[in-house]
Amino acid sequence: MSEHNRILVPVDYSPQSLIALEQAANLAKVFNAELTILKIAETSSMTSFFSSKHMDEFTTALEVQLKDFTADQVKKYGVAMTPVLKKGKVYDEVVETAVEIKATFIVMGTSGSESGMKRFIGSNALRVVRESKIPVITIKGQHHRKGCQNIILPLDLTKETKEKVGKAIEFAKIFGSTIRVVSVLFTSDEFIVNRLTRQLDQVKKFIEKSAVECSAEIIKSTKGSESLAEVIIDYGNKAKGDLIIIMTQQENDYTEYFIGSSAQGIINHSDIPVLSIIPSPSKDTSVFTPY
Q: In CATH, which of 3.30.160.250, 3.40.50.620, 3.40.1160.10, 3.10.560.10 is domain 150-277?
């Protein structure tokens, strides 16, 4: 992390976005970061209710509300915060603002449902995860422990990267966390089992060389109907996970792993915060091998 860390937090004043803000404030203290509080006025909604001559008054009222809200949050959490008001589509403005302020990462709430708050923190959170060039932490659960004792790191044979392992180590060192590497097995093929076992052992040794405590295990689906996301979430809950780290792929030539249903399943249904990372094009994103 750099000396000038900035965390972007989109808010709509809903309970879930305020929970995300609280978690972001906790992270800011650890990362010595400043928060940018982003409120987005969707232009389609504004033009539906306001004529052009009243738009300026409405925008001014939103700015005053956001400024007062931010001042209250600074007093509450003791973290530096800057309010920013934007107009436009939520996911576009979140991604663009992150670039403008050179954010270290984004923290935002997600409802994980098809009703209620979906418009802001449901589908928009997934869109931000897909389009963001920086890591995104999505917050769904209502209650979270302070700190980060256990990081859940799902791995498979072909789609994991050194970058993802490196990010897990980075967070683990900052928080003093244990990394729990896990692979899900949906086959009894001996060749695949042996190969997966060797890879987990390599990853575990590499993490431990970085002076980070690590465990590694292969788990089997106990129900044939369980999805990969369901198995990982269940493991994370049993392991008392504080953060699940997944890698998203945005290039069209990558096979689906955490880009489609698996990513959506974890983000939408995990009460454990989820850190989604897109691999940097300039970095080695090959299958993990020992250094």
A: 3.40.50.620
